C-alpha cells in the first residue's frame, strides 16, 4: 500500500509512506502507522503529583513527569507551544528505554510516572510499552490528555494508565473548531466516559473569559453525569502563543460562576494563579480540609497538610474519592 | 513578621510569607505595597518593557514610601538574551535603553547610584549529558553550569571526567578543603561537584527543554560604577553601601547581562570569584553582593537535589529552595527605611531584605503577577 489512515486520534490523518500527519509524530511504513520517534522524550522532571496536576491520586508523592513533542490540536492559547507545535525532531533529544525510565523514577524517589507536557496520544505505542514495564515494576503510569484519541486508543489508555487527566476545554463545538482546530467536543466527552469506565479520571478546563466561561454550568453537569465525585480542575488561563495579547480572566468573575458548579460537584478546584484559596480538598460533609494545598503559580499546587486516613476524612470518616494515602516521608530515592 | 502580598491583576492575597497561609494583617506598608502592585502589572519576561516596569514601579514606591536605601535589579536583557538568537548588533541599543531606565530613576529620585554589571553572555557551545549515568545526577533549572553527582559509580566518574565540555569534577571533601564554608552547605551537597566549561550546560532530569542560545559568561571581574567609594571584590560592596547610607540616600542597582566590555559608564573592576568558582547571575552572586558572604556560607550548594527542598513543611514556599531569609543583607542591617524593586523573581526579595520588596512573580518564563514581601 502506498499509504493509510492513522487511527490513533480522531483526526484520522491520511499518511503516506515516509510522510507525516498533523501531529508530525506518526508515519506509514507500508503496512501500518508507526511512530517516527519511538521512546524519545524532550524532558523529564521530578514533580509533586499535585503539580501535574492530580489531586486525587497518590497524594503527597513525587512523580517522574515526562514530556515529548507534538500535538493533534492547535490551541491558540497553548502554554507549551514550544513543544506542542514545533518540529519534534530536535526537541526529542532523550532516547530512554522503558527500563531506563523506571530506573530514573526509582533513583529520584518517585512513586509513579506521568506524561504531562504534551499530548500522549501522539506517542501512544511508546507509552503503552512503558506502561507495561512500569506497572510490573510497581510504578503506575498516568497521562494528561486532550481526549481526542480514537475510541480504541481511549480503551487502551484506560487500561494502561492508572490515572488520567482529560482537558475538556469547552462544551460547544464552535470553541473546539475556532480555538483548537478540531470539529467537535463530542469525541472528548465520549472518551471521558470511556476512560472513566477503566481508570481514575480527573478533568481540567482552562477558562478564557468571554470564550468558554459560559460553558461552566454545562461542563459541571456533564462531569456530574459521569462521576459526581470526580475532581474538576478549573484553570485561569494565561493565554500565550496566538492569543498572548488577550486579557487574563477576572478571578472573581470565574469563581462566582464556579459557585453554582460547586453545588453539583464537591471537588471543584480553581488554580493557575498564585495564592488561590481553592486548591485544597474539603470533606463535603464536615468541610474538614482533608488535603491542604498551596498554589505557587501554575496549574498545580504543593501539599501542605493531610487529614486523610485509609481513604476517609480523618474528622468525620466520610470515604473520599482519593486513591492512596499520603506517605509520611518526603522525597528520597535510592 | 514578613507578609507576602500576591497580586495577580485585579486580585490580591496576603499570606504569612513563612508558611504561605492567608493572613488578615493590616499595616501601612502593606497598604503602600498593595497600591503599588495594583498600579503596575508586570508585562512579562520576554520584553524590554520589563526594565521600564522596574523603574516605573520603583518611582511609585519611592514616592509613597520615601526610603533611604533602594535596591533595584534589572534582569530583562538577561532573560531575553538566553532565548533569542542575537547577532550582537542589538546589544548596544538594549544596554543603552536599560541604562536610560536607570538614569530615569536616578534623575527623578536623587539617589546616589551604585551600579554593578553582573557579567556578560556568550553563545551556548554545547550540552553535557547526565542522564546516562549509573548514579543520580542533579542539574536543575534553565541554566545549569553546575551539576551534582550522588553516589556515582566508578564508571560515572571516569565518564564525566572525560566528557566534552566538563571543566572539572571535584569531590565534596576536596571542595570543602579548598573552599571551607558552613556545615549546612555540605549537608545537602552532592558527593561530587561537576563544573562545565564556559559556554557549556548540563542536560538531564529537571532541565528545561526550551531552546537556549546564550548563557552567562563566567567572568573573573565585573564592572562597578560608584561615586561613594571603592571595592576590590563583590563581597566588599555591602560595607561600602552601608557607609554611604550614613550620609546620603543610596541605591544599589544590579544589571544582568552586562559585563566590563559593554558597561557604558566609568567603572572599577570587582573581583567576581572565590578560588576557581566564578559567580554568574544567580543567587550566589546576588547574595555575595548584598550580604558580603560567599556562596559556601549559605546552605544551598550547586548541584543540590531540588526535591529535597520542596516538601510539605518547607518554609518560605515563595522563595524557591531558600528556607530562611538571609539576615545579613543590606536591607536587614540598615536601620532606616528601605525598599526594593526588581524583575528577577525570588532573588529580589532574598537579596534585598528591605522593608518592602516588590518583584515580578514569574516562573519558567510564565508571568503570574507581582509579589511584594513586606516586613511588618
The residue fraction in helices of chain B comes out at: 25-40%
* Multimerization status: heterodimer
Note the beta-strand portion of chain B.
25-35%
The percent of residues in helical segments of chain A reads 25-40%
Cα distance spanning the termini of chain B: 6 Å
Shape annotation of chain B: globular
| Poorly predicted tracts of residues of chain B | none
The top level CATH class name of the largest domain in chain A: Alpha Beta
SSE-based structural type of chain A: alpha/beta
Mean pLDDT of chain A: 93
Tell how many strands the DSSP assignment of chain A holds: 19
Q: Major sheet of chain A, described briefly?
A: 8 strands, mixed
- Could you name the CATH homologous superfamily of the largest domain in chain A? Aldolase class I
Provide an overview of this structure.
Chain A has helices at 81-84, 88-91, 98-107, 124-136, 151-160, 173-180, 186-198, 216-226, 251-264, and strands at 3-5, 14-16, 26-28, 33-35, 40-41, 43-48, 62-67, 94-95, 112-115, 141-145, 163-167, 200-207, 232-236, 268-271, 281-282, 289-294, 302-306, 308-309, 312-313. With 334 residues, chain A is an alpha/beta fold. Chain A has two domains: 1-36, no CATH class; 37-313, Alpha-Beta Barrel (TIM Barrel), CATH 3.20.20. In chain A, strands 6-7-9-10-11-12-13-14 form an eight-stranded mixed β-sheet. The longest helix of chain A has 14 residues, at 251-264. Chain A is globular. In chain B, the strands form five sheets. Chain B has a ten-stranded mixed β-sheet. A four-stranded antiparallel β-sheet of chain B has the order 7-8-10-9. Chain B is globular, with a radius of gyration of 20 Å. Chain B starts with a strand and ends with a strand. The model of chain B has no long low-confidence stretch (mean pLDDT 93). At the A-B interface, β6, β7 and β17 of A face β20 of B.
Amino acid at each position: 500500500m502506498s499509504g493509510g489512515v492513522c487511527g490513533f486520534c480522531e483526526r484520522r490523518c491520511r499518511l503516506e509512506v515516509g510522510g507525516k500527519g498533523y501531529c508530525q509524530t506518526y508515519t506509514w511504513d507500508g503496512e501500518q502507522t508507526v511512530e517516527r520517534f519511538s521512546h524519545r522524550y524532550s524532558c523529564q522532571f521530578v514533580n509533586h503529583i499535585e503539580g501535574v496536576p492530580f489531586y486525587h491520586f497518590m497524594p503527597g508523592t513525587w512523580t517522574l513527569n515526562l514530556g515529548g513533542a507534538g500535538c493533534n490540536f492547535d490551541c491558540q492559547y497553548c502554554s507549551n507551544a514550544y513543544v506542542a507545535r514545533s518540529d519534534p525532531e530536535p526537541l526529542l533529544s532523550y532516547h530512554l528505554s522503558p527500563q531506563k525510565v523506571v530506573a530514573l523514577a526509582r533513583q529520584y524517589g518517585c512513586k509513579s510516572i506521568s506524561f504531562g507536557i504534551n499530548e500522549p496520544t501522539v506517542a501512544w505505542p511508546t507509552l503503552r510499552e512503558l506502561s507495561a514495564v512500569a506497572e510490573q515494576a510497581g510504578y503506575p503510569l498516568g497521562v494528561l490528555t486532550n481526549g481526542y484519541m480514537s475510541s480504541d486508543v481511549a480503551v487502551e489508555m484506560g487500561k494502561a494508565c492508572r490515572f488520567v487527566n482529560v482537558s475538556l476545554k469547552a462544551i460547544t463545538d464552535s470553541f473546539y473548531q475556532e480555538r483548537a482546530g478540531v470539529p467537535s467536543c463530542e469525541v472528548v466527552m465520549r472518551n471521558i466516559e470511556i476512560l472513566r469506565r477503566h481508570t481514575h479520571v480527573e478533568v481540567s478546563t482552562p477558562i478564557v473569559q468571554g470564550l468558554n466561561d459560559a460553558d461552566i454550568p454545562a461542563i459541571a453537569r456533564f462531569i456530574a453525569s459521569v462521576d459526581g465525585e470526580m475532581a474538576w480542575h478549573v484553570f485561569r488561563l494565561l493565554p500565550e502563543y496566538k492569543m498572548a495579547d488577550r486579557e487574563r480572566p477576572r478571578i472573581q468573575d470565574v469563581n462566582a460562576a464556579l459557585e453554582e458548579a460547586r453545588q453539583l460537584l464537591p471537588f471543584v478546584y480553581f488554580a493557575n494563579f498564585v495564592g488561590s484559596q481553592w486548591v485544597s480538598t474539603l470533606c463535603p460533609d464536615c468541610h474538614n480540609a482533608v488535603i491542604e494545598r498551596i498554589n505557587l503559580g501554575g496549574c498545580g499546587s504543593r501539599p501542605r497538610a493531610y487529614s486523610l486516613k485509609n481513604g476517609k476524612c480523618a474528622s468525620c470518616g466520610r470515604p473520599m474519592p482519593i486513591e492512596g494515602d499520603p506517605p509520611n516521608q518526603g522525597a528520597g530515592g535510592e | 513578621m514578613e507578609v507576602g502580598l500576591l497580586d495577580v491583576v485585579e486580585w490580591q492575597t496576603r499570606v504569612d510569607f513563612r508558611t504561605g497561609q492567608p493572613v488578615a494583617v493590616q499595616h501601612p506598608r502593606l497598604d503602600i505595597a498593595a497600591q503599588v502592585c495594583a498600579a503596575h502589572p508586570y508585562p512579562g519576561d520576554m520584553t524590554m518593557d520589563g526594565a521600564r516596569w522596574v523603574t516605573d514601579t520603583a518611582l511609585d514606591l519611592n514616592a509613597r514610601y520615601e526610603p533611604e536605601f533602594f535596591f533595584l535589579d534589572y534582569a530583562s536583557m538577561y532573560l531575553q538574551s538566553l532565548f533569542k538568537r542575537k547577532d550582537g548588533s542589538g546589544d548596544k541599543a538594549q544596554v543603552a535603553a536599560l541604562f536610560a531606565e536607570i538614569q530615569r530613576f536616578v534623575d527623578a529620585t536623587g539617589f546616589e547610584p551604585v551600579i554593578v554589571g553582573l557579567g556578560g553572555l556568550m553563545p551556548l557551545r554545547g550540552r553535557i549529558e547526565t542522564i546516562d549515568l549509573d548514579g543520580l545526577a542533579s542539574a536543575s533549572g534553565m541554566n545549569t553550569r553546575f551539576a551534582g553527582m550522588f553516589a556515582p559509580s566508578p564508571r560515572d566518574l571516569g565518564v564525566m571526567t572525560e566528557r566534552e565540555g566538563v571543566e572539572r569534577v571535584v569531590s565534596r571533601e576536596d571542595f570543602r578543603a579548598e573552599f571551607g564554608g558552613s556545615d549546612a552547605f555540605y549537608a545537602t551537597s552532592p558527593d561530587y561537584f561537576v563544573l562545565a566549561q564556559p559556554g557549556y550546560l548540563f542536560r538531564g532530569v529537571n532541565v528545561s527543554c526550551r531552546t537556549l542560545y546564550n548563557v552567562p559568561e563566567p567572568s573573573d571581574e565585573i564592572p562597578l560604577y560608584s561615586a561613594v567609594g571603592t571595592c576590590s571584590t563583590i563581597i566588599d560592596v555591602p560595607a561600602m553601601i552601608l557607609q554611604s547610607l550614613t550620609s546620603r540616600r543610596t541605591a544599589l542597582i544590579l544589571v544582568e547581562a552586562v559585563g566590563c566590555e559593554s558597561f557604558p559608564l566609568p567603572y572599577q573592576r570587582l573581583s567576581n570569584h572565590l578560588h576557581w568558582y566564578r559567580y554568574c547571575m544567580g543567587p550566589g552572586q546576588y547574595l555575595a553582593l548584598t550580604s558580603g558572604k560567599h556562596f559556601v556560607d549559605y546552605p544551598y550548594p550547586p548541584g543540590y537535589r531540588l526535591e529535597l527542598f520542596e516538601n510539605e513543611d518547607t518554609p518560605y514556599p515563595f522563595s524557591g529552595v531558600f528556607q530562611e531569609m538571609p539576615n545579613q543583607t543590606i536591607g536587614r542591617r540598615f536601620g532606616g527605611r528601605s525598599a526594593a524593586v526588581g524583575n528577577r523573581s525570588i532573588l529580589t526579595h532574598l537579596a534585598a531584605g528591605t522593608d518592602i520588596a516588590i518583584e515580578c512573580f514569574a516562573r519558567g518564563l510564565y508571568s503570574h503577577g507581582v509579589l511584594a514581601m513586606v516586613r511588618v
